[in-house]
């Protein structure tokens, strides 16, 4: 199922205004070439730009939003459910309106993005580390250990993520940390399987034999030589999984087993606001929903492009 | 083949038991269902009598042992809330979920293959690229959000379709189905679309990739050279060959569809097992939660087996012994 | 190949049908005029009327069965299958039964059916919430003649008629031995075999999670019921339930979310009916432990043992703002545990005025000029807007210096944590099943005592001997006026001691399509008998 890579063959580079890394005139390094190919896809570049803007906004949230939505002393229920553009006594304007507690929706969305992205990226990071380690070990040592680990991976993957996470969180209770743990548990197996797959291929190559013959330690061979060569498919999976994790977290919060109400993520904001949707106060649910969809689409656009470039054989 | 089947079923049984035990203990740890179920008017003596009546006064290991002993005999316990056998409760609701998942699967397959084929035949045309970008959107829209938006637009604003619940059902071979009444289908449409969207995107991508591969194959070129009409080439030669990966993946995804039905059923008040699961978790109805999970895992096992069998039928080169990994 | 094409064609076929359905939906909404479809927020867990003492179950059985005595919309007692009742002495009651009533299967009703019913109550297998709380005071029963029933109680029991009104009378002739064992089984009620009562509607079909269908009992002793056919559909999510009403799928819904009420009221195709319920939402404070778990910054003291702190908390909360902004005006600020006008509520009590300055002053007097840190526990899926109300309370307390964080959890987790005293302050609600004041007093503020059945939900462990004495006395007083006065005095004592802080009374709402009217019930039951064609 290999596809001819349109990025390589077309070669037409369209300079986008949002392009952050200008391509060098000569394709000197693989990375630069990758960047150049990446930029050939306008949707992907737009996605990357959105991700960067959102990430910056999330990181510097306290500096850029007018209100700390978690500080009860700053809220006033008398300002509850004001429509977008209403004036505020405390600060300028509620550009996106307020929720029932008098919370500025713009601030709540930026802070909600923060929680959503935090949950997405941290859970993916942990799952990546744990899953890669398992996959490498399985591929390198092989034999009984390999089949045991892969059996566990198979079992894990045969359960749908949503169900496992739902049950785990029902047992753990609400909390950002608990959501992250649940997401790590449902995700690690993807990486384990992918890393093992590519590590098995790489392992047979001469440079690994050479490294082993040189008497390098197991750890050094594993992490210094084997791992770097398994990275490309991992990067693709990780990117797509961040989007998955964000969506999954939102779904769990919607079902009431995700983050606590005191630290609402986008999913929880949508769930809270949906009650008001039909009464015409659309802004409480609609804007967080738009933010959520935009973020997930952006990540998926980037992931999709990376997949085309790094690993055309990968299915999802 | 038989050895392969036995080994696989044995492993599955082990998984089933381990999972049931873990979930059993996990739900025990959440809380006492009597706190939720009992009338607040009940005094302390009545509370304790109820705990005893439901067998919750015994130590955990004893409850677990009883459960396992009964489970081996096919009795997964009685629902604390409904007072009827948990398995029966689930089997009563299963047709609704299967109906929803199957319709969603059919929608995903028909729409997905059509669009994917198109995108694969004309990869550089505007429409082909739009389909691909659109499929990313399909991946990205969270299931619950899509459901809420569909309700808002089609049920509330336009008032074309009902907002939730299951329509009129008829008995077909002892199974209640809403597939054969207008009312039933109108209730089914929105939840099925919601559930199908993600899989549709998946099928589009599979079908497109398959098409692009297949059109370069020699037999397609020969077929064209032979002067067969383009539509015959596409529908007979291309379609047949792209269906192999599509059927495999989609078959496997039927399991995750049943799982995702939890979300869709919650949004649309669809009376299937997914909604039963959520209600049972809320009420700490442990027998039902455990029975649900055992049932679902059992269905997955069956589906996986079925896909392997179907795969070997579609592609004679595949022998089951190879699929054992 | 052919298989594949068939699959695709099948898909197209289904889509085609669906489109046909789409144009056909106009027919769906306009059912026959005498059919009624009701969307329920929560469905009954069983049709066995003695299985689960729960609001949706009790609301459902009222259609199929009758009680010996019935409660009207304001929970006042009315004749049911008993036409009259009176105490013969302190522990003996006589009930005159209605003559000429038959069950749906034609078996006649008499005193033996009542005795059989009451004897079955403790023998319902697996009951998660038994009705024995209403029958355990009964010492003996005797049918003096087929239509005169004598009941003796262990001790004076003024609430016996109220308690009996919660029991659905089943037919001895139909049920005895019907399930094989000694007592009829819950399953046989669910399947309809034993769902045979004397009530206004007959069982037709019960599909759990999907529908409950009833048809008119033309021989009903109370006159011909309004509807030919009643269908209950459980739609637990708020949004879809409202959408179902707006799209004409159902004729009536219960508990429309408060945030949708303004819009529903403005819609000329929809009528909204609201009525005060018997449910109070309150804050309870740990008044027992010395080192209370949810408080920080008090050097290990428990501030709530000081009445001034409790008073300060009460003054810090703007109940009217909560009612206005969080409850959308659909609630009534509360001054005690049961609305005025109901039996035992003290008419002299007033809602605490919002006085943040006074609250700060009291806190300073009590030795907490800088306040303290507090965790407020609340369920998030039990009462109307429970978690939102808790957040608003936290906002108000934070403003007077008590820095409050809300710890919200799902009801199963919340009740477990509350019952193990994990909260220094929690928000919860109480609905008075008996419709009078002894219910909340006994459960919420009486000193916990297993023997007497007191303080079952007093998880703040408030204890006031004066209050206990008044409740004891009231529960022994058969004379209604005397009992009411004692209950009023007890209520007064608790509220002025700030032993518990009432926030508001829930108002229950129902929304109907145009042309229907709904008579709200304080017990929050959703009932087809309350729905009438609007004039």
UniProtKB/TrEMBL annotation, chain A:
- Residue spans crossing the bilayer: 43-65, 115-141, 153-173, 282-303
Q: Where in the cell is it found?
A: Cell membrane
* Gene3D superfamilies, A to Z: MetI-like
Q: Which InterPro entries match?
A: BP-dependent_transpt_permease, MetI-like, MetI-like_sf, OppC_N
Entry keyword annotation includes RNA-binding: no
Q: Which SUPFAM superfamilies match?
A: MetI-like
- What are the start and end residues of every segment in region (Disordered)? 1-21
Which Pfam family is an annotated match for this chain, by its short name?
OppC_N
List UniProt keywords, sorted A-Z. Answer: Cell membrane, Membrane, Transmembrane, Transmembrane helix, Transport
Major location (coarse): membrane
Q: Where is it found, in Gene Ontology cellular component terms?
A: plasma membrane
Every copy of the ABC transmembrane type-1 domain together lies at: 113-303
The secretion signal range is none
Q: Looking at the keywords, is Disulfide bond present?
A: no
Tell me how this protein sits in the membrane: Multi-pass membrane protein
Instruction: Please give the biological process terms from Gene Ontology that the record holds.
Output: transmembrane transport
Which superkingdom heads the taxonomic lineage of this protein's source?
A: Bacteria
**Which family does the entry's similarity section mention?**
Belongs to the binding-protein-dependent transport system permease family.
Protein name per Swiss-Prot or TrEMBL:
Peptide/nickel transport system permease protein
Protein species of origin: Tistlia consotensis USBA 355
From which lineage does this chain's organism come?
Bacteria, Pseudomonadati, Pseudomonadota, Alphaproteobacteria, Rhodospirillales
Automatic annotation (TrEMBL), chain B:
What's its membrane topology? Answer: Multi-pass membrane protein
Where in or outside the cell it occurs: the entry states: Cell membrane
Name of the protein in question = Peptide/nickel transport system permease protein
Return the CDD domains for the record: TM_PBP2
Domain ABC transmembrane type-1, which positions? 94-311
TM region(s), chain numbering: 12-31, 100-121, 142-161, 173-198, 242-270, 290-311
State the UniProt keywords alphabetically: Cell membrane, Membrane, Transmembrane, Transmembrane helix, Transport
InterPro entries per record? BPD_transp_1_N, MetI-like, MetI-like_sf
PANTHER family given for it? Answer: ABC TRANSPORTER PERMEASE PROTEIN (PTHR43163:SF2), DIPEPTIDE TRANSPORT SYSTEM PERMEASE PROTEIN DPPB-RELATED (PTHR43163)
Per the UniProt record, the lineage of the source organism begins with: Bacteria, Pseudomonadati, Pseudomonadota, Alphaproteobacteria, Rhodospirillales
- The primary location reported for this protein is membrane
> Which one GO biological process term can you cite for this protein?
transmembrane transport
Source organism: Tistlia consotensis USBA 355
- GO CC entries: plasma membrane
Question: Is RNA-binding given among the entry's keywords?
Answer: no
Similarity-based family: Belongs to the binding-protein-dependent transport system permease family.
From TrEMBL, chain C:
> What InterPro entries is this protein classified in?
Peptide/Ni-bd, SBP_5, SBP_5_dom
Question: Biological process GO terms, please?
Answer: peptide transport
Q: Which organism is it from?
A: Tistlia consotensis USBA 355
Name under which the protein is recorded = Peptide/nickel transport system substrate-binding protein
**Family recorded in the similarity comment:** Belongs to the bacterial solute-binding protein 5 family.
Classification via Pfam families: SBP_bac_5
Cellular location of this protein? Periplasm
One GO cellular component term of this record is: ATP-binding cassette (ABC) transporter complex
Q: Which residues form the Solute-binding protein family domain?
A: 77-448
Gene3D superfamilies named among the record's database cross-references? Dipeptide-binding Protein, Domain 1, Dipeptide-binding Protein, Domain 3, Periplasmic binding protein-like II
| GO molecular function term, any single one | peptide transmembrane transporter activity
Q: Where is the signal peptide?
A: 1-20
What lineage is this protein's organism placed in?
Answer: Bacteria, Pseudomonadati, Pseudomonadota, Alphaproteobacteria, Rhodospirillales
**CDD domains linked to this entry:** PBP2_NikA_DppA_OppA_like_2
């Amino acid at each position: 199922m290999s596809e001819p890579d349109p990025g390589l063959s077309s070669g037409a580079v369209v300079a986008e205004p949002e392009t952050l890394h200008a391509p060098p005139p000569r394709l000197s390094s693989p990375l630069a070439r990758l960047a150049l190919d990446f930029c050939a896809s306008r949707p992907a570049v737009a996605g990357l730009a959105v991700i960067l803007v959102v990430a910056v906004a999330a990181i510097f949230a306290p500096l850029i939003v007018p209100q700390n939505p978690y500080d009860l002393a700053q809220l006033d229920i008398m300002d509850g459910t004001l429509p977008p553009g209403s004036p505020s006594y405390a600060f300028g304007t509620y550009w996106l309106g307020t929720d029932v507690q008098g919370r500025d929706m713009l601030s709540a969305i930026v802070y909600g993005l923060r929680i959503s992205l935090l949950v997405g990226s941290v859970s993916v990071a942990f799952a990546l580390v744990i899953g890669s380690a398992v996959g490498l070990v399985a591929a390198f040592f092989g034999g009984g250990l390999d089949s045991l680990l892969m059996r566990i991976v198979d079992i894990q993957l045969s359960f749908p993520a949503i169900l496992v996470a739902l049950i785990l969180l029902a047992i753990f209770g609400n909390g950002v940390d608990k959501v992250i743990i649940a997401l790590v548990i449902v995700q690690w197996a993807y990486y384990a399987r992918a890393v093992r797959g590519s590590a098995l291929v790489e392992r047979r190559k001469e440079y690994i034999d050479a490294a082993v013959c040189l008497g390098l330690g197991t750890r050094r061979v594993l992490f210094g030589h084997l791992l770097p060569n398994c990275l490309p498919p991992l990067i693709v999976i990780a990117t797509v999984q961040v989007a998955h994790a964000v969506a999954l977290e939102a779904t769990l919060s919607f079902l009431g087993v995700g983050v606590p109400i005191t630290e609402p993520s986008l999913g929880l904001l949508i769930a809270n606001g949906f009650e008001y949707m039909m009464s015409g106060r659309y802004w409480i649910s609609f804007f967080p929903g738009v933010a959520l969809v935009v973020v997930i689409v952006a990540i998926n656009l980037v992931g999709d492009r990376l997949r085309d470039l790094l690993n055309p054989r990968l299915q999802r | 083949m038989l050895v392969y089947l036995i080994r696989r079923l044995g492993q599955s049984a082990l998984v089933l038991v381990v999972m049931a035990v873990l979930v059993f203990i996990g739900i025990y740890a959440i809380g006492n269902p009597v706190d939720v179920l009992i009338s607040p008017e009940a005094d302390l003596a009545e509370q304790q009598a109820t705990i005893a009546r439901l067998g919750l006064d015994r130590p955990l290991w004893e409850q677990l042992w009883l459960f396992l002993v009964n489970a081996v005999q096919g009795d997964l316990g009685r629902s604390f809330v409904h007072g009827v056998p948990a398995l029966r409760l689930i089997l009563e609701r299963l047709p609704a979920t299967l109906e929803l998942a199957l319709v969603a699967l059919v929608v995903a397959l028909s729409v997905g293959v059509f669009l994917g084929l198109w995108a694969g035949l004309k990869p550089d045309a505007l429409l082909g690229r739009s389909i691909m970008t659109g499929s990313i959107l399909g991946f990205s829209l969270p299931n619950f959000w899509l459901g809420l938006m569909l309700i808002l637009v089609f049920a509330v604003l336009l008032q074309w379709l009902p907002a939730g619940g299951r329509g009129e059902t008829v008995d077909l071979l002892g199974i209640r189905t809403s597939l054969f009444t207008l009312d039933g289908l109108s209730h089914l449409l929105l939840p099925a679309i919601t559930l199908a969207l993600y899989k549709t995107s998946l099928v589009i991508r599979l079908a497109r990739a398959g098409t692009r591969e297949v059109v370069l194959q020699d037999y397609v070129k020969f077929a064209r050279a032979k002067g067969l009409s383009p539509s015959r080439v596409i529908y007979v030669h291309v379609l047949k060959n792209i269906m192999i990966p599509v059927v495999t993946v989609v078959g496997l995804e039927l399991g995750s569809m049943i799982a995702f039905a939890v979300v869709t059923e919650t949004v649309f008040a669809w009376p299937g097992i997914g909604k039963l699961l959520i209600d049972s978790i809320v009420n700490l109805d442990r027998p039902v939660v455990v029975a649900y999970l055992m049932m679902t895992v059992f269905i997955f096992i069956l589906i996986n087996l079925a896909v392997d069998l179907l795969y070997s039928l579609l592609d004679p080169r595949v022998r089951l012994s190879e699929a054992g990994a | 190949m052919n298989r594949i094409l068939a699959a695709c064609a099948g898909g197209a076929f289904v889509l085609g049908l669906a489109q046909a359905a789409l144009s056909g939906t106009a027919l769906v909404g306009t059912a026959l005029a005498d059919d009624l479809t009701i969307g329920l927020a929560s469905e009954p867990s069983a049709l066995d009327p003695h299985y689960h003492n729960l609001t949706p179950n009790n609301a459902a059985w009222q259609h199929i069965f009758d009680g010996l005595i019935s409660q009207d919309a304001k929970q006042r007692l009315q004749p049911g299958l008993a036409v009259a009742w009176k105490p013969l002495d302190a522990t003996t009651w006589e009930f005159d039964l209605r003559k000429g009533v038959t069950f749906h299967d034609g078996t006649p009703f008499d005193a033996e059916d009542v005795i059989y019913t009451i004897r079955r109550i403790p023998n319902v297998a697996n009951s998660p919430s038994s009705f024995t709380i209403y029958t355990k005071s009964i010492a003996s029963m005797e049918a003096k003649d087929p239509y005169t029933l004598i009941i003796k109680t262990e001790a004076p029991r003024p609430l016996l008629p109220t308690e009996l009104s919660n029991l659905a009378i089943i037919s001895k002739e139909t049920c005895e031995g019907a399930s094989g064992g000694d007592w009829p089984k819950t399953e046989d009620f669910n399947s309809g075999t034993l769902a045979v009562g004397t009530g206004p509607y007959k069982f037709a079909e019960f599909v759990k999670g999907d529908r409950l269908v009833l048809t008119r009992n033309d021989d009903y002793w109370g006159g011909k019921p309004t509807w030919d056919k009643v269908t209950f559909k459980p739609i637990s999510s708020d949004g879809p339930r409202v959408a179902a009403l707006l799209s004409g799928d159902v004729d009536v819904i219960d508990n429309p979310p408060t945030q949708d009420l303004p819009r529903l009221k403005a819609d000329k195709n929809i009528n909204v009916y609201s009525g005060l319920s018997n449910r109070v939402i309150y804050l309870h404070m740990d008044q027992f432990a010395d080192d209370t778990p949810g408080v920080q910054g008090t050097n290990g003291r428990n501030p709530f043992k000081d009445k001034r702190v409790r008073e300060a908390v009460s003054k810090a909360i703007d109940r009217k703002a909560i009612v206005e902004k969080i409850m959308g005006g659909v609630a009534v600020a509360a001054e005690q545990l049961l609305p005025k006008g109901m039996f035992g509520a003290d008419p002299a009590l007033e809602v605490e005025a919002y006085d943040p300055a006074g609250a700060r002053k009291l806190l300073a007097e009590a030795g907490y000029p800088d306040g303290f840190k507090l965790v407020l526990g609340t369920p998030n899926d039990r009462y109307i807007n429970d978690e939102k109300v808790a957040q608003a309370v936290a906002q108000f307390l934070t403003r007077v210096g008590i820095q409050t964080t809300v710890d919200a959890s799902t009801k199963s987790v919340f009740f477990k944590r509350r019952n193990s005293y994990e909260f220094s302050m929690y928000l919860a609600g109480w609905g008075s099943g008996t419709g009078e004041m002894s219910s909340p007093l006994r459960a919420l503020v009486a000193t916990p005592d297993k023997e007497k059945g007191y303080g079952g939900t007093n998880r703040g462990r408030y204890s006031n001997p004066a209050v206990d004495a008044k409740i004891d006395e009231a529960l022994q007083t058969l004379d209604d006026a005397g009992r009411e006065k004692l209950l009023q005095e007890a209520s007064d004592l608790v509220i002025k001691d700030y032993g518990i802080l009432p926030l508001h009374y829930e108002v229950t709402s129902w929304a109907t399509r145009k042309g229907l009217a709904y008579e709200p019930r304080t017990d929050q039951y959703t009932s087809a008998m309350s729905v009438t064609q609007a004039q």
